[in-house]
Design brief:
heterodimer, A: mainly alpha, about 0% strand, globular, B: alpha/beta, 13-stranded parallel sheet, twelve-stranded parallel sheet, 5 helices
């Protein structure tokens, strides 16, 4: 399996897509860190911080989902997966290897991008890379790579995988929120609060956004309506639960992918 | 004979001194003639005392006043021209109470681990300056007020520093009050005015309180040159102006607050020449009066600049860093109006549960759409004359090389490039 992971990783790094994504990330992160030199020296959830967070939330899941899912769909579409089945490797072994390769590739991109940010920060003397952003990015790659594998397995071909990924991305980043906001116009504030709390757990993008507020100690940004909820997650048990639920966001998509692939295994 | 005389003299001197030294604080006060000055010994006084005559009491270098009573350590009542200077109070319920008195000066008092500091009732011409007070740790409910003034006139609070109390400076039913160059931190309210008339709050620094200045049912107030930063807790705000009228807030700096100015049923207020930077919401109006004016302010890096529940105010000639208009005629003002109105901002005012979505990716897109559709807005939260350049100078940063960051960055960069090259290598 180790050899397969290494091979997959090499293939991902050689992919033009991946190289373009790496370039894009480096340029964007460098630009942000330069722009942030103009930001006012104020702690807390400022507009600059919000922009940085949104950029991460927009871009990282988008590229992880599309590239990861297309990589898996490509294996199935091209017959590479059918060939692999002749080798003594389980379905889960294959999925796990793909997952690790995707995660490792994106972590390498992040390493490159954060390296650029820190270098620029060092030269300009303005330290603008909070540790919580690094941790959040790691969580994002780990969770959305699992979802990407699931999307790839669900798709019939690469184009299908791309469209599926975009749907998942749009749902997580935009549509769920708009549905909730629309719901707020017909239900009471208390009901809206409860539905929002449920949706935070069901939407990985919101889950990670909430994680940012939690780990940066800025849960007060979310307003007093969520006092009880944020107090619970700010405890030791809350942190533990956050890690466990984040783990579930990895295990569940991979398990579903495993189940789907073993069900349609005879056909591919 | 001479030696015997000297011996007797010194003996009597020592005995006299030790007797005086053993006097209680009250006895010392009583022995001092009206208008006289009493300098306290360098010792601990564990008692309470009442002052009923004009007197100046000065603390020694090591004088400490404290009491385990519920009463204040010193009570000044029904008198005038009393000055307390350089006294140190420790671990007591309350330090000084001033009742029905005139021309009282409290100068350079120090209070440590106190439930509350000074209370002034029904008095006139009171000056409290250079006082430092550190309250207790714990919940606000278990703390008292720092400096509290009730039903008094011509009160000046100046150069005081109060921390860890419920309300640092509390003024109720006061008239002609000047509060300047004070510091209030880590308290519930920095300055709290109730039913006050004729207030001047200038050059105060209010930081990390729940609310910087709370103005309730007050009128004729000037809040000027104050620095209000990091009021960042649940429901926090820089200023809360509730049911207040004839208020001028000018030349203040609001930075990093949950809401810089939170107003409800505010009448005839002028908010001008302030700097609002990196606040979650700069100004929030609820049930606002049409005569409230927001002018010549700088709005920089706030998530929401101005929001309201739909009530209107006059907004003009401000600088907004998110204004995307042009100034083709170069008159210093934008050619198109600035619309601060955002649907999401209004939703948050009406339903607090919406706050979860603040500046989320979906809301950012929504706001962009709003900016296009709200261009037809004519009245509500519209600035017809937005200025192009800020009036304040924001370029105070100095750049120096950060070695640790640079080394880590280069290490990460080198590591990433090495791994990538190794990864793509064939074989």
């Amino acid at each position: 399996m180790g050899l397969f992971i290494q091979m997959e990783w090499k293939q991902m790094l050689r992919s033009r897509w991946m190289q373009l994504v790496a370039l894009l990330f480096v340029v964007i992160f460098a630009a942000i860190s330069l722009i942030q030199q103009m930001a006012l020296p104020v702690d807390g959830f400022t507009r600059q911080m919000a922009s940085f967070l949104n950029l991460l939330l927009f871009l990282l899941p988008l590229f992880t989902l599309t590239i990861g899912s297309m990589s898996v769909a490509s294996d199935i579409e091209s017959g590479w997966y059918a060939l692999l089945k002749t080798y003594p490797m389980s379905i889960f072994g294959y999925l796990w290897s793909k997952y690790v390769a995707i995660v490792a590739s994106f972590l390498l991109i992040l390493l490159l991008a954060f390296g650029i940010v820190l270098t620029i920060s060092g030269i300009t003397g303005q330290m603008q890379l909070p540790v919580v952003f690094i941790v959040l990015s790691l969580f994002m790659v780990v969770i959305f790579s699992a979802l990407a594998v699931c999307c790839g397995v669900l798709a019939k071909n690469r184009l299908h995988a791309l469209s599926l990924s975009l749907v998942v991305w749009a749902l997580c980043l935009l549509l769920f929120s708009y549905v909730l906001m629309a719901l707020g116009t017909v239900v009471s504030g208390t009901m809206l609060k409860y539905v929002t709390i449920v949706m935070i757990h069901l939407n990985p993008a919101e889950w990670l956004r909430f994680g940012y507020f939690m780990f940066s100690g800025q849960t007060t940004v979310l307003g007093p309506a969520y006092y009880g909820f944020t107090e619970f997650y700010s405890s030791f048990f809350g942190y533990f639960l956050f890690v466990v639920l984040s783990g579930l966001w990895v295990v569940l998509p991979l398990s579903i992918a495993n189940w789907i692939l073993s069900k349609k295994g005879r056909d591919v | 004979m001479k030696i015997r005389f000297l011996f007797v003299f010194f003996l009597s001197l020592i005995s006299f001194t030790s007797i005086a030294h053993a006097d209680t604080l009250q006895q010392q006060i009583d022995k001092t003639p009206a208008g006289g000055t009493l300098t306290l010994f360098d010792r601990d006084y564990m008692e309470t005392a009442v002052i009923k005559k004009p007197i100046t009491i000065v603390g020694g270098e090591k004088t400490v006043l404290m009491s385990d009573s519920e009463k204040p350590v010193l009570t000044i009542e029904n008198t005038q021209q009393v000055t307390l200077k350089g006294l140190r109070f420790l671990q007591s319920t309350s330090a000084v109470a001033v009742k029905k008195s005139k021309k009282i000066t409290l100068d350079q008092l120090e209070m440590v681990q106190m439930f509350s500091g000074v209370q002034v009732y029904d008095s006139e011409q009171v000056m409290i300056k250079g006082l430092t007070l550190r309250g207790l740790d714990g919940q606000y409910a278990s703390k008292g007020y720092g400096l509290a003034v009730y039903r008094s006139e011509q009160v000046t609070l100046q150069n005081n520093n109060v921390t860890l109390v419920q309300d640092a400076y509390y003024l109720e039913k006061t008239k002609d009050v000047i509060v300047k160059n004070n510091v209030a931190t880590e308290s519930r309210y920095g300055l709290h005015f109730m039913y006050a008339d004729g207030i001047k709050a200038e050059n105060n620094t209010l930081q990390r309180n729940v609310t910087g200045i709370m103005l309730m049912l007050a009128k004729n107030a000037t809040l000027r040159h104050n620095t209000i930063s990091i009021q960042w807790d649940w429901n926090s705000s820089g200023f809360t102006l509730y049911n207040a009228e004839n208020i001028v807030a000018e030349h203040n700096i609001f930075s990093g607050n949950r809401t810089a100015i939170l107003s409800q049923t505010l009448k005839n207020a002028t908010i001008r020449k302030n700097v609002f930077s990196s606040n979650q919401t700069a100004i929030e109006f609820t049930a606002s009066d049409e005569d409230n004016v927001v002018t010549d302010n700088d709005f920089v890096g706030n998530i929401l600049n101005i929001r309201s529940d739909g009530s209107d105010s006059k907004i003009h000639h401000n600088y907004y860093d998110d204004y995307d208009g042009t100034d083709l005629d170069e008159d210093g003002m934008g050619d198109t109006k600035y619309v601060a109105l955002q649907s999401f901002g209004q939703w948050m005012v009406r339903e607090p549960a919406y706050q979860y979505f603040i500046e989320s990716p979906s809301v950012v897109l929504l706001n962009r759409m709003d900016q296009q559709t709200n261009k037809v807005e004519q009245n509500q939260l519209v600035d017809d004359t937005p200025v192009i350049k800020p009036t304040s100078n924001f370029s105070e940063r100095q750049n120096t090389i950060h070695i640790v960051s640079l080394l880590f960055g280069l290490l990460m960069l080198g590591g990433a490039i090495y791994l990538w090259r190794k990864g793509v290598r064939i074989g």
